[in-house]
Amino acid sequence: MADYESAGGSLKFKGGGGITKKKKKKTDASKVKAALEAKEATPPPSKPIKVLEKTAAELKFEEVQRKRQEEKVLKSAMKSHKEKVAELNRKLEEMTEHYDIPKVGPG
Questions:
Q1: Cβ-proximal residues to 54 (8 Å cutoff; 6+ apart), any chain
Q2: How many domains does one find in the chain?
Q3: Separate counts of helices (H) and strands (E) for the chain
Q4: Which domain holds residue 66?
Q5: What is the pLDDT of residues 26-37, one digit of tens each?
Q6: Which of 63, 47, 44 is nearest to 55 (CA)?
Q7: Would the pTM of this model clear 0.70, i.e. be above it?
């Protein structure tokens, strides 16, 4: 019971509960100055920059993909909203209804 005797009363704050002073924020000028100093202190990278060139197969693949994308955009732009909704409804009707509960048992 001695452990619980000090439980009564109001809560105590850590650190004495006195008034604390707010820390001053660094100004933008000091941040810029610190960044410049850090940039000057680090040595520049000594590795040469590698330029990757695409192969003929990669270029052909990208060209075919671009053409397909353009065809798809033109095809969808030619349809009206009503036609798009009708096409979606047709697709939904053709799908199997595997979420339906099968009828099992008598009746």
A1: 62
A2: 1
A3: 3, 0
A4: 56-94
A5: 667 777 777 777
A6: 63
A7: no
